[in-house]
Amino acid sequence: MDPFLLSLALKACAISFSGKRGESLHGYCVKTEFVSYVFVGSALMDMYMKIGKVCECCH
Fold first, then answer.
1. Among 3, 16, 29, 58, which residue is least crowded by beta carbons within 10 Å?
2. How far is 57 from 36, CA to CA, in rounded Å?
3. By residue range, what is the domain housing residue 29?
4. What was the pLDDT predicted at 10?
5. Which of 6, 14, 11 is nearest to 52 (CA)?
6. pTM confidence score
7. How many structural domains compose the chain?
8. What is d(CA 37, CA 20) in angstroms, rounded to the nearest whole number?
9. Mean pLDDT of 1-19
């Protein structure tokens, strides 16, 4: 999975309010260091805000 596809998957999790899947993808982002891409970080923040986990958004 590349960073572009990952950001789309995170956006899909945000739309469907699939927090568990999104958190799993977040772990993948950290392991692969894709979290350093601005658009992946933005998709992570958007997902956490939409599923109501604001504290996780800041970590």
1. 58
2. 14
3. 3-57
4. 92
5. 14
6. 0.82
7. 1
8. 22
9. 90
B/e letters for 14-36, b = 16+ CB within 10 Å, e = fewer, are beeebbeebbebbeebeeeebbe
Closest by CA position to 28, among listed 17, 13, 49: 13
Q: Is the pLDDT of residue 58 over 70?
A: no
pLDDT tens digits for 25-54? 999 999 999 999 999 999 999 899 888 887
Q: What letter represents residue 1's amino acid?
A: M
Average pLDDT over residues 1-17: 91
Which token pair is 1?
A: 């999975």
